[in-house]
Amino acid sequence: MEIQLSREVLELFSDFKIGVIEYQDITVGDSPQMVKGRLQLFQESIFFELENKQVTDLPGIKEWRTIFKKTGKDPNRYRHSAEALFRRVKKQNYLSPIHSAIDINNFFSLQYQVPIGIYDLDRLDGHVEIRIGKEGEEYTGLNGRTNSLENLILSSDEVGPFGSPFVDSDRAPVTLNTINALQIIYLQPSTGEEDAVKLTESLMKMFTQIHGGEASCFILGCQ
């Protein structure tokens, strides 16, 4: 699959980076107890860390709020998915296990303070572009609402937008029936290329250890 960053995104953020992972022949199921335990313990440690802090004080959360603001999307009204996870943890509304793919996504999103999307590759059509939403664009999200995509960084295939660092659409979610998947890591632009590669490879390795199959990854945006 070909995936690219739009000129508009690169003009706004010269150091913008996306980690891209493609998986083939995976098996999605209930998370192993190790994953469930680590996710629970990690959330508890984050809760204590945030007792005397605001979620917006965290560097990764702050950086992605700045990105939203620069594209023209109000970060107070449209909170990126990593911030939404941290706000849940701060309220002790801890994430419950859903299935292995989502649980791994949430764990790494909390660990690195970045939005991460994962999609059923067989439900996507053609090339993918990371771009900024146009006036009037919208989709029904996994939050059950119609979401405006105007001025929002999003992922779009040849059918139209299917994901964003705010909330993903309901068109291509990973389910227990997913065999092939596309994972998009919305890295902090301040992350160096070497660290971006390490983060992406670390996620890919853990994911394939649990789900099997084959995988390949690359960093989009590094010159």
Order of helices and strands: EHEHHHHEEEEEEEHE
Uncertain spans: none
Strand order of the largest sheet: 1-4-7-8
Q: What is the β-strand count?
A: 10
* Whole-number mean pLDDT: 96
Q: Any idea what the radius of gyration is?
A: 16 Å
**Helix segment tally:** 6
Which bin fits the share of residues in helices?
25-40%
How would you explain this protein's 3D organization?
This protein is α+β, with helices and mostly antiparallel strands and 223 residues long. It is 35% helix and 21% strand. It is built from 6 helices and 10 strands. The protein has a 4-stranded mixed beta sheet with strand order 1-4-7-8. Helix 2 packs parallel to helix 5 and helix 5 runs antiparallel to helix 6. It is globular and about 40 Å long. It starts with a strand and ends with a strand. The mean pLDDT is 96.
